[in-house]
Amino acid sequence: MPPVISPEAERQEILRHYRRLLRTAKPYLKDGDPKLIKKAFNQSLEAHKEMRRKSGEPYILHPLAVAQIAVEEIGLGTTSIVAALLHDVVEDTDTEISDIEREFGPKVALIIDGLTKISGVFEYGTSEQAENFRKMLLTLSEDVRVILIKIADRLHNMRTLDSMPRHKQLKIASETLYLYAPLAHRLGLYTIKSELEDLYLKFTDTDTYNDLKAKVRQSQSARNRLIKEFVQPIDDELKAQGFEYEIKGRPKSIYSVLNKMKKQNITFDEVYDLFAIRVILDVPPEQEKAACWQVYSIVTDFYQPNPDRLRDWVSTPKANGYESLHTTVMSRPGQWVEVQIRSRRMDDIAEKGYAAHWKYKDTGSLQPESSLEGWVNKVREMLESNNSSALEFMDEFRQNLFVKEVYAFTPKGKLVILPDKATTLDFAFEIHTEIGLRCLGAKVNQKLEPLSYPLRNGDQVEILTSHKQRPTTEWLNYVTTPKARSKIKDFLRDDKRAKADDGRHLLEKRLEIIGVPFTQENFNRLLIYFNAPTAQEFYYRLAVGQIDGRSIREPLFTGEKPLSVVFEPKNFENEVQKIRGVRPDMLVVGEHTDKFNYSIARCCNPIPGDDVFGFETDQGLIIHRTSCPRAVDLMSNYGNRIVRAKWNDQLELAFLAGVRLKGSDRVGLVNDVTRIISTSLKVNMRSISLTADDGFFEGQIMVFVNDTGHLDKLIQRLAKVEGVLQVGRFDT
User: Fold this and answer.
1) Pairing verdict, β 461-465 and 620-625
2) d(CA 461, CA 190)
């Protein structure tokens, strides 16, 4: 139970948050703004007066916190503060969007309309969340502030996720990693993106999070000392050359440290670039580029740079507007250190992303068609022309969020920025849809290349076209950009529709020739006989010759009635629901596991003691670990098929787990390892593979254990074997 707080103490707490918000926003407010913010605050306070959050605190503290994040961490202004304060009012009370528009104007009403959660009927075969995300993203074509406030809302929800039940924590955290962290990244909000990722890890794999957090904290004092020694000569030289600047140390986020450990298969101690140094220069816009390179020259005078790790986003900013000069240099204690060099304006944009762009645009030092604005326009186009299912759309949209970029040029030297691994066909669609649809191939650096050729940085591309060329379904394998994929699908869909019309005329003529009436019953017989799922598919196959018209003969239509009924997918789903009578998300697995058909997921091999969830499939429930590589995707896209799961205490079964070892090789090592496994802990071993090279060995052992405690004991004992330097569990 939360502690009982007097109404007066609560009132003071609310006012304290409100005054803090006004203090933070004060430098950006114009005449009349404080009055408008006060009006929004009072309306929100009144609307939520009887409501409390799961933690027990007054609900009004949530909209206040979202507004605080919007102004302090994203850099938004009065319109956004008002919208953030009112963002839950329409959903939670009788207030209508029209009331908001009358009181606060059309801009605020539009943003709140986008922020209000969407409910209603969802497409067959897609999840509720994917449709929700899609509708929310459609507001991007109206006002990008909707997404920015939504990110602020999600950040506060993640910061206060402790008070939510476990299954809600997993669902919200997974959605966050699936969509909100990549969105924050693409909109340039790097600090928020890192915090969202860390919070995801905190709630889905708490032990790993706490372990890494403790290790980062332990190495803090040594790191601070290293930073101080590293910065000293640079600091002295910058002062001597008269620079106005600030130097900051930036530790790597816990999630990115874990990612690096997994990707490179290394331990925490082997992650060398745990922090970065950032040099922020106070220089006018026209001197920024020269000043950054001047500081680069100073840094590399003192420390040897790694030539493969130079990143120049000052000359060519990232598509989300990020500008900075990065180099990795060797410090004196023999440790690599990343140095980021940027101006105050660039740092603002890196920290506050899209909102900072607009601030600098107003002062005239940002190009009207910035690369980020170009990206938002591309997203608009993609959203407005997309006809695929919500899940398909979300998949394509996400692919477009986190990708690296490739820089290519037209024959006249115009720069075209595409996602990494983009092909000549993507390039053609980027220039113009008609050029894409008629593309034969391309000359890349004067050499003929096919449609599927992946572009590299600096390629000069000339597209070759023909009026006879037509897209085929195979083209979908050649493209990576959502724009190209969407345009090819549109063409194929229209083409199929036109051919289906031809097929219908062919069928009418054929039935006329054999003297059979064109009735629904007769048509159903044809669908069943030729195994066609839909009328359009049947007509299309007939038109392109996959079904031979001459095989449609009079004997097909004799007999009592059609062989079976053809269900539309939605009807079929409803029938299944009626038969089952219960919704799958009402089941709790683990307490009465014998009643359900379940199996253990091979992708993560959970064992008793692991944090798990059930995923419902046609074959029964599949049990996954919450830290499974597929968990984020499953929980975000198929939330309605996720089942709360826990292990039954009575379970005494053996589960397969993998243990990885590294160390120095010696005679008798394998014997010692296998003895511990088979005798001291009564663990059965399925397989062992050890390879030795230059006095070091690396190995993997597959063992059967009862639970995580059993596995932990085994790992502890193996770690004590002479010569074993590293031992740990791995996902099999």
Assistant:
1) unpaired
2) 33
Rounded CA gap, 286 and 282, in Å?
Answer: 12
Token representation of residue 725? 């330097």
Query: Can you tell me the mean pLDDT for 81-94?
Result: 82
**CA 711, CA 482: separation in Å to the nearest integer?**
45
The tens digit of pLDDT for each residue in 199-224 reads 999 988 888 888 888 888 877 777 77
Reply yes or no on whether 575 is catalytic: no
Cα–Cα distance between 295 and 314 in angstroms, integer? 13
- Which amino acid is located at 121 in the chain? V
The helix (H) or strand (E) run that includes residue 281 is strand 275-281
Give, in order, the Cα–Cα distances in Å from 598 to each of 221, 330, 634.
Answer: 49, 53, 17
- The values of phi and psi at residue 591, to 5°, are -80, -35
SS3 711: helix
Q: Which of 92, 128, 273, 381 is catalytic?
A: 92
The Cα-based distances of 204 to 53, 225, 369, 448 in angstroms read 22, 33, 40, 50
Strands (E), 282-317: 304-305, 311-312
Residue 606: DSSP 8-state:
-
Smallest CA-to-CA distance from 635 within 163, 177, 201 is with 177
Other C-beta atoms closer than 10 Å to the C-beta of 665 total 16
- What 3-state class would DSSP assign to 530? coil
Q: Determine the Cα–Cα distance for residues 397 and 525; give it in Å rounded to an integer.
A: 41
**Which amino acid, one-letter code, is at 179?**
L
pTM given for the model: 0.64
Residue 201 token pair: 């890890």
Report residue 373's pLDDT band, with 50, 70 and 90 as the boundaries: low
Between CA 112 and CA 530 the distance in angstroms is 51
Catalytic, out of 91, 301, 434, 722: 91
Task: Please tell me the distance from the alpha carbon of residue 722 to that of residue 732, in angstroms, as a whole number.
Answer: 26
pLDDT digits (tens, 9 = 90+) for 89-117: 887 777 788 888 888 888 888 888 877 75
Q: Does the CA dihedral 401-403-406-411 come out positive or negative?
A: negative
Q: Any catalytic annotation for residue 92?
A: yes
